[in-house]
Each structure stands twice: as structure tokens, then as C-alpha cells.
Amino acid sequence: MPLPLPRTNRGRCLIVAFLAIATSAARGGELDSSAVGSGRISLEETPADNGPWRESDRQPDLVVDLDGISENWLTTDWDWRLLPSSLVYKSYLAGMKESRFSSQHINVKDDGWLWDTTLGGRVGLLRFGDRDPIRPNGFQIDLEGSAQVRLDVPDDVNLRSVDFRGGLPITYGAGPSRFKFAIYHISSHLGDEFLLNNPGVNRLNYSRDVLVLGYTLYLRRDLRIYGEMGWAFHSEVAEPWEFQFGVDYVPGTPTGPRGRPFFAINGQLREEVDFGGNLVAQAGWAWLSDENARLLRVGAHYFNGYSNQFSFYRDHEQQIGLAVWYDF
User: Which of 40, 119, 144, 155 has most Cβ atoms within 10 angstroms of its Cβ?
Assistant: First the structure.
């Protein structure tokens, strides 16, 4: 039922003044009281109806990221997306067991030249969230899988060992904070040629089925810190607990063909080596896509600690080399 309106000019002016004050308060502005009744606010500037403001007329709540970049992620419409092209929770850049495409040519002290490659990736299956192509917000289910291969360069590039990994991460992100719950399986195997050439080697059936909790905080759009803990509910050779943590500095906006520098540091602790582990440092140049946040990196790689090939999990290695990494 429409409200009765005053028929006098004075009554209409009172309504105009009231609406102007309410509008200014709702939008956080200040009202010049001298404008009311002075002819600078006309009846034509009032809303056409007496109902609530339309959503398109509202000013969105402003959310400021820690680096000063404003993001309206609280007011962005969320919807369902099948097979989203980007990830809510990014893979750790210097995480040696992350699923990605990579090729690392490394020299291992007291061992020689080795070729470590990871053949795999991580993709989104389903998202309820926004459509930001670079750093989306919302809930997302991913799928990951990879073969993490070590080739012995001096020995005719024969297969020395391989770790197979597959997992299902469930992630959530809102503004600078990201959360991950995941389950993954990893198992380690020795190459046939390596076993033939080393008949005295005792093959280990290293495997883990792990539940993971992870957290990432973006200090700036291009800088994040993270921590993660994993507990194996089923394992052979391995012990249940593992922890990792680190920092990534990487382009947070599309780079174009020129690219920008990056560096990454990761530490991992594992119970089966008495909570020792390894430290990884990487640095170089990176390119970030403007369509799907895929990341290409080239640079230097340094590793010190217990081997990242779990068939040799008690062997200490110091690696130095060059690498190419491609992250989905």
C-alpha cells in the first residue's frame, strides 16, 4: 500500500531533506545542510519509489588487504563453478613433494649429477566462490597427482627411484587467509636398472596415507607465509607426523612477457628421521598468466637435508642446481 505524501511544497521539502540525510549516512558521507531547501537538491533527485534502495545503488563494503590493495571480496557474488581454472590455495613453491611439472638438474655432493623431474599437476574440480582468475575466494575441491622421478645421469640416465603421489585437497579462502584440509597417498619405488646394478640394496616399501591441515597468510599480494601439519593414519616404514612451513615471494599480478623475480624457502620436518628434515631455497625469474594464474619459473635450487626421494629417506643430501617449474 503506497504511503500518502504531503501535498504542500513544505511537506515535500521535509521528505527530501530526510531522504538526503538518510542516503548520506548510509553511504558514509557528509551532508551540507545548506543544500537542503536552497534549490541545489531537487525533487527529481529523490528515489522514484518509496521502497528500499536497489542493490546496485548500494556502496559495497570496502575490504583493504594488508598491502593496501582494496578488495571487495565480501560483497562479490559467489556461485558454483565446475572445473575452475585457478586454485584457491596455491601449492608451496619450494615444497619438494608438491604435484607440478618441474625439471631440476642437480649436483648432489658425493653422488654426482642427477635429474629430478616431477610429472603431474593440481587442478580444480568444483568451486563455490567468486570468479577472480588470480586469487579466488571461496570453497574449492582440487585433485592432485604426480610421479616424482630421479634419473641417474652418469648411469645412462637410468631410473633410480620414483615417488608416486595422489591426493584430494579441500580448500577455503577469504581475503588474505587460506585454509586447506587434504588427504593424500605417497609411495616410493626403486628403478629396475638400479636394483640390477645394486643387488645388495634392501628395497623399502615406504608409503603414507595422510590427513593434512594447512594455513596460508598473504602479508602482501606478492608475499605469503604458510604452515602445514600432516598425520598418517596408515603408513609403512614412515612414522605418522610431518610438518612443513615456509615463505613465498612471487608475482601476485600478471607479469606479461617481462616477468618478475621470485624467491621461496621451505622447511620440512618428519618423525621418521627424529623430526629432522630438509631446507630448500629457490630464487630466479617468474611469469604469471593473466588468464588462469598459472606460474612459470626458472632459477637456482638449493637443498640440504634428508633425501626428498623417500626410498632413500635416511640419506643426507646437499643439492645445488638449476630448474624449471610450472605450477597450475
Answer: 144
